[in-house]
């Protein structure tokens, strides 16, 4: 029998700590079946005030916050990595050693998201000897090629994962990931997501509902070329019944910023309104000039947008 004590892991620094709080509001509201939810927070120098705010979003007697200091993440990696993403993102790679050995599995989720449905069926899932369970990502073929995967190999988005900690410990997956990172001089395509896909060669594929990234809402089905991938019917069901709505960067922008065109931005704002940050103003649109131009092309001149993507793909594939 699967325990109704749920284990959730998130990673953040102070810049994203308010998103942790909003995520937790949605998590607890939609998972009242769980007797207890332990939040494992991988903290990269989150200050005490923000830690206090995060704790206040956990209902009394329904859960607890456990904090793991990962401010030494650069040392843990043993090699320099590109600074194009927050380095705290790499901390998910160390969950099997950070969490107590009596915890056999954990759901890892990025904090730029809300939980819109129940995680009960997922938590009851038997992972067998699979390293992870995740949702297929639509990436260009060169993303697979860059990490040694074949064109038809499964590639998942690492923003929402059910991680088999027991199997990771049994096979020493952490060490294998670090060995891979060092062997590639710290430069792995898609960073920690690339590492997970390269090393975790036994993946269980989840329904797309468990990680509805922004592109799945914005782009038409015919634009998704990846194999394996979901059927059009599965994608429609994902949009109509999302469980985890992942507000990834892209042409639609993010709902805590101005100029957001995500079709479910109001869902995020609803949970924001239930948090301690209800009165916090939206942030300035901080996307790069290049991304803003691409967004403008997509919403006002789609043919040129798709041409620019095709050109970029050709350039990247020749590297």
> Helical segment tally?
14
Which structural class do the helices and strands define?
alpha/beta
Biggest sheet overview: 7 strands, mixed
Reading off the top of the CATH hierarchy, the class of the largest domain is best stated as: Alpha Beta
Chain-wise SSE layout:
Layout: E1 5-13, H1 17-29, E2 36-44, H2 48-55, E3 63-69, H3 73-77, H4 95-98, E4 105-109, E5 113-115, H5 120-123, E6 132-136, H6 141-145, E7 156-164, H7 165-171, H8 173-183, H9 191-199, E8 203-205, E9 212-213, H10 214-218, H11 232-240, E10 244-246, H12 265-273, H13 289-300, H14 302-317
Parallel strand pairs: 1-2, 1-4, 2-3, 6-8, 9-10
Antiparallel strand pairs: 4-7, 5-10, 6-7
Helix pairs in contact: 1-2, 8-9, 13-14
Overview in brief:
By secondary structure, the protein is α/β, with parallel strands linked by helices.
Model description:
- This protein folds into two domains: 5-287, Spore Coat Polysaccharide Biosynthesis Protein SpsA, Chain A (Alpha-Beta Complex), CATH 3.90.550.10; 294-319, no CATH class.
- The protein is built from 14 helices and ten strands.
- It has helices at 17-29, 48-55, 73-77, 95-98, 120-123, 141-145, 165-171, 173-183, 191-199, 214-218, 232-240, 265-273, 289-300, 302-317, and strands spanning 5-13, 36-44, 63-69, 105-109, 113-115, 132-136, 156-164, 203-205, 212-213, 244-246.
- It has a seven-stranded mixed beta sheet, with helices on both faces.
- Helix 13 packs across helix 14.
- The longest helix has 16 residues, at 302-317.
- The protein is globular, with a radius of gyration of 19 Å.
- The N and C termini lie far apart (50 Å).
